[in-house]
């Protein structure tokens, strides 16, 4: 198996190739309504077999030493990440269950906001693909708490470094990101310079 750093390096390559776009004009309109010169659509990475495998190993490593028993977040962004962690965790000998936090609670059946094999009192990680304002992550935290889950930390694939971490901080003891926007931008800028030479 590759080292943690080698896996992160390869995952960065996949993100830059499939999930990152940069343009000066016109800027992208984000879900928050803000305008930005860069955009992350993580689905082409998180739903890719190699990307999913790398993410599963990397996030599992980030949870090493914790007593977290489950990981999940607001559908749809968190789902492939949580599922990847769950599969890899089973293969590596310490199973971590995945769960889904619904955006809209069903009006029939159990009317549960949280789906999966998790029970009140379990210590969990809330997952998100991208943190921008932190709103979707906070929604997931609140719904998971209402279901009786104990939130140990948040793990995001990418932190856009636009205030989301600060907004989430009052709600959880710890926030981690696989990558920060500044790291991805630094590699993108370096690659752009190399191409222009």
Describe the 3D structure:
- The protein has a single domain (4-196), classed as Rossmann fold, CATH 3.40.50.
- It is built from seven helices and ten strands.
- It has 197 residues and is of the alpha/beta class.
Shape: globular
As a whole number of angstroms, the C-alpha radius of gyration is 17 Å
How many DSSP H or I helices? 7
| Structure class | alpha/beta
CATH T-level fold name: Rossmann fold
CATH architecture: 3-Layer(aba) Sandwich
Number of domains: 1
Unreliable spans? none
Average predicted confidence as pLDDT: 93
String of helices and strands: HEEEEHHEHEEEHEHEH
- Assess the beta-strand content as a share of residues: 15-25%
Helix content: 40-55%
Strands, helices and their partners?
Elements: H1 4-18, E1 20-22, E2 28-29, E3 35-36, E4 38-40, H2 43-46, H3 49-62, E5 70-74, H4 79-91, E6 97-101, E7 114-116, E8 123-131, H5 135-146, E9 150-159, H6 164-168, E10 175-180, H7 181-196
Helix pairs in contact: 1-3, 3-4
